[in-house]
Amino acid sequence: MDVTAMLPKEAGLESLITEKKTCWERLQEEKRPIFIYGMGDGAIKIMNAFQKYGITVSGIFASDEFVRGHSFAGYHVHKLSEVEEMVDDFVIVLAFAAGYPELFQYILQLAKKHTLYAPDVPVIGGGLFTYQYCMDHLHEFNQVYRMLADNESRQVYLNVIQFKISGNIHYLEKICSPPGKILRMVLRLSRNESFMDVGAYNGDTLQEFLRYTDKKYYLIHAIEPDQKSFRKLENYIQEHKLKSIKTHHCVAWCNDTELKFNSRFGRQSALYTEGTPVPARRIDTLLENDSISVIKMDVEGFEREVLWGAREIISKRAPKLCVSIYHRNQDLFELPLLVKRLNPRYQIYIRHRLYIPAWDTNLYAVAK
């Protein structure tokens, strides 16, 4: 990442945030046809925001290879090539996530050809991220900005905020960090770590950890509440004959209880008022006498509760932390402030891995 303009640590974000008009407001002013690119939950959230702002949807399209003559939300789903034949000049609103290099580059190329916005809608919770939202929480945002450990973190933090207001993907393009660089330069992983993967899914993060450490480690704890993902996780462990791994089929939580878990068989499985009862455990309880040196948390918006359930080990042992801070609007300030409160010795870093929208924006904490 090119960080050419050194950002002053003492500056207030009110003087650095230049995006004051949201993508919703810009779309309100558009005279050109507006087409939503993609279907699913993201498109529904965007269409709800359109209704709030009085924005007209001209149509929906998907990549040519995914269109099979179906419809979505009452709209016939076009191919991109069909839209380009019908309309000379139109605006694209991206409604899906691009998290691998080829797709990321494709979206960047598409943005050179057409006006493109990638609106920020929270993965969980309500409300839209606007300039006014930033001003309403300016004190908290400034607290985080000023406590960040390096200039790259401050640039990433500012760019993510600018993106979330504007929907301009070029703010994200400029701040992507390769996973290996983060593990090497920020977390500085050794080959003797005790690693806890909270939200282990099917073992994808575990694979990344093992690849970087050349499968050398002391101990691993892996927590996954979704039954299908848990089976895939265990199959991965057995297939690769991994030793010294403890798996936990439960929800990581702030106290020891039982919760209802709505299993959607994938990354979007989450806690709801209805669902299958699943045991919930504090990390401090699960660890018992084990010592952990690295904890990764990606728990679909419940990172705050999981951190609170790990408060003893965080305050006493200060393990290295990797915590997702993109699920809820308030995660950008609530989670860094909570980590610092639990252990003031932490140095706080923010990095964004290759992703559109601002998913995979993570907090990294390393004790001094």
What does this structure look like?
- The protein has helices at residues 23-28, 41-53, 80-86, 101-113, 131-136, 138-147, 151-166, 170-173, 179-187, 204-212, 227-239, 283-287, 303-308, 311-317, 331-342; strands at residues 34-37, 59-62, 71-72, 75-79, 91-94, 115-117, 194-198, 219-223, 245-248, 251-252, 257-262, 270-271, 276-281, 294-297, 320-324, 346-352, 361-367.
- The protein is globular.
- The model has no long low-confidence stretch (mean pLDDT 93).
- By secondary structure, the chain is an alpha/beta fold.
List keywords for this structure.
368 residues, 2 domains, 7-stranded mixed β-sheet, 6-stranded mixed β-sheet, 15 helices, 17 strands
SS strand fraction? 15-25%
Average of the residue pLDDT scores? 93
Characterize the main sheet. Answer: 7 strands, mixed
Question: Uncertain runs with pLDDT below 50, 5 residues or more?
Answer: none
Provide the helix percentage: 25-40%
Assigned CATH architecture of the largest domain: 3-Layer(aba) Sandwich
With strands numbered from the N-terminus, the spatial order across the biggest sheet is 9-8-7-14-15-17-16
Write the CATH fold name of the largest domain: Rossmann fold
CATH homology superfamily name of the largest domain? NAD(P)-binding Rossmann-like Domain
CATH classification class of the largest domain? Alpha Beta
Number of strands: 17
What overall form do the CA principal axes indicate?
A: globular
The helix count comes to 15
How far the N terminus sits from the C terminus, by CA atoms, comes to 24 Å
User: What is the SS-derived class?
Assistant: alpha/beta
